[in-house]
Specification:
Largest sheet: none
Number of strands: 0
Helix content: over 70%
Structural class: mainly alpha
Number of helices: 4
Low-confidence stretches: none
Radius of gyration: 14 Å
Length: about 120
């Protein structure tokens, strides 16, 4: 396993844990879809900082360019995440934390590819 892959998994795991922790803390106070969005917003900053400093530290793009591109990448990942989350939660009636976990896994692959080859292009 390359160092970039290791750090991508570690940072992604930390961001996913942050996302799920925020979701778990606020879901009783709002619709699950909104709790998911709030978790995403907070986890975005964990993810960007970690990926910029660790996963893709040799990126040839500026921080500003990477932030813009990663923002687009993350929003695409969140769109996938939210779609899968709603499907699993509302249609299949899975428990909310399980639905969120599965949705996060689904979006992770897409985020890696877009991050590696576009947002933090080497």
């Amino acid at each position: 396993m390359s160092a970039s892959t290791f750090w991508f998994l570690a940072v992604g795991g930390a961001a996913a844990a942050t996302h799920m922790a925020v979701f778990a803390l606020v879901q009783a106070h709002m619709w699950p879809e909104l709790a998911n969005a709030l978790g995403f917003v907070i986890a975005f900053f964990v993810s960007f900082a970690g990926h910029r400093r660790l996963s893709f530290k040799d990126a040839s793009t500026s921080v500003g360019t990477s932030l813009k591109r990663f923002g687009i990448t993350a929003l695409a990942g969140f769109a996938s995440n939210e779609g899968v989350f709603v499907l699993l939660l509302r249609s299949l009636e899975l428990p909310s934390l399980l639905a969120l976990f599965l949705a996060l896994l689904f979006a992770a692959g897409q985020t890696f590819v877009l991050s590696r080859f576009w947002a933090f292009r080497r």
